[in-house]
Automatic annotation (TrEMBL):
It holds the Pfam family Epimerase. Residues 6-265 form the NAD-dependent epimerase/dehydratase domain. It is an enzyme of class 5 (isomerase). GO terms for cellular component: cytosol. Pathway: Carbohydrate metabolism; galactose metabolism; Carbohydrate metabolism; hexose metabolism. Mutarotase converts alpha-aldose to the beta-anomer. It is active on D-glucose, L-arabinose, D-xylose, D-galactose, maltose and lactose. It comes from Thyridium curvatum. Its EC number is 5.1.3.2. In the N-terminal section; belongs to the NAD(P)-dependent epimerase/dehydratase family. This is UDP-glucose 4-epimerase. Homodimer. GO terms for biological process: galactose metabolic process. It catalyses: UDP-alpha-D-glucose = UDP-alpha-D-galactose.
Length: 364
């Protein structure tokens, strides 16, 4: 039985593909739109391999409103949208902010009233500038320190204003308004891969994040890791981050969608994190342990916009969404190594036969 039909923007990307997989595994029909700028259509094959269901796919740029309209017209059963925006720098604003506005306008025209947005902990910026804000609660003042965080913060504002306006206008007109809802999911540092080793992050260029970069070092694609600063006031001098397994993160999107559909809260801003902070050196050590050898690194100066500590207070998600992380940072390291060591070319190779056989046995 199909529970509902969800549009996933950026659905062939890292977080989008895992969210699509989780939705399919929980009896949602999934329609993906993606322009494949920094992802691969092969992700659809891997989703189908793992769960036996295939998302419907449309190659569409999120900034193209007319194309989005055609998708909604082709699938009038879509009742919710999960948005994952890409990461491309003046392009950040055009794609992330402009694309989100295009999506919301098209959703409004086709009466699609629930939106789950993949926001980011970067909207908080440096939470240490306020007392008692580590781990970071949702009431921590917003103050992003880089372009990516500023685009996420802008989109949160756009969604908030849009949903509130829809509810207020309908309420004033004496019409039903509770159907308009938005969840702003401020995820912390997603990492890891599918435990089967058949799905993972496959960036087309140089990865931005620590664990994928360590994966490239471990496979010999990069000579060493660059550690940006060891002069932070932390336990070992490196920055602290809350690493969340991508499988847990995808389940958080599912929990948020269920919450919107059942509780109709209007707007909800919620942290998705483990509440456990790890330093860069601790992550290097954990991943090196999984690989079985020390991985080389050089310490270089801090990057502009980097902050000391991004650790979540996830209690709101725990209580309201009945969601919490089930997998540890060590699991993410093990799953990432299984992915990169077995798929050195990512999605540009066939899945290894031994992993396919293991998957078949696990389903038997």
């Amino acid at each position: 039985m199909v529970v509902g039909t969800v549009l996933v923007t950026g659905g062939t990307g890292y977080i989008g593909s895992f969210t699509s997989l989780t939705l399919l595994e929980n009896d949602y029909q999934v329609v993906i739109v993606d322009n494949l700028y920094n992802s691969s259509e092969v992700a659809l094959d891997r989703i189908e391999l793992i769960c036996g269901k295939r998302p419907i796919f449309h190659k569409v740029d999120i900034t193209d409103e007319a194309a989005l309209d055609k998708v909604f017209e082709a699938h009038p059963e879509i009742d919710s949208a999960v948005g994952e925006s890409g990461e491309i720098p003046l392009e950040y604003y055009r794609v992330n902010v402009g694309g989100s506005i295009s999506l919301l306008r098209s959703m409004e025209r086709h009466n699609v009233t629930n939106v789950v947005f993949s926001s980011s902990a970067t909207v908080y910026g440096d939470a240490t500038r306020y007392p008692n804000m580590i781990p970071i609660p949702e009431h921590c003042p917003i103050g992003p320190t880089n372009t990516y965080g500023r685009t996420k913060s802008m989109i949160e504002t756009v969604i908030t204003d849009h949903v509130n306006a829809q509810r207020n206008n309908l309420q004033k007109a004496g019409k039903a308004f509770e159907q308009w809802n938005g969840a702003l999911l401020r995820y912390f540092n997603p990492c890891g891969a599918h435990p089967s080793g058949l799905m993972g992050e496959d960036p087309q260029g140089v990865p931005y994040n620590l664990l994928p970069l360590l994966g490239r070092v471990a496979t010999g694609d990069r000579p060493k890791l660059l550690v940006f600063g060891d002069d932070y006031p932390s336990r070992d001098g490196t920055a602290i981050r809350d690493y969340i397994h991508v499988v847990d993160l995808a389940k958080g999107h599912l929990s948020a969608l269920k919450y919107l559909r059942e509780k109709k809260p209007g707007l909800l801003a919620c942290n998705l994190g483990s509440g456990r902070g790890s330093t860069v050196f601790e992550m290097i050590k954990a991943f090196s342990k999984v690989v079985g050898r020390d991985l080389p690194y050089d310490v270089v100066p801090r990057r502009q916009g980097d902050v000391l500590d991004l650790t979540a207070n996830p209690s709101m998600a725990n209580e309201l969404l009945h969601w919490k992380t089930e997998l540890a940072m060590e699991d993410a390291c093990a799953d990432l190594w299984k992915w990169v060591s077995n798929n050195p070319k990512g999605y540009r190779q066939d899945p290894p036969a031994e992993l396919l056989e293991a998957l078949k046995k696990s389903k038997a």
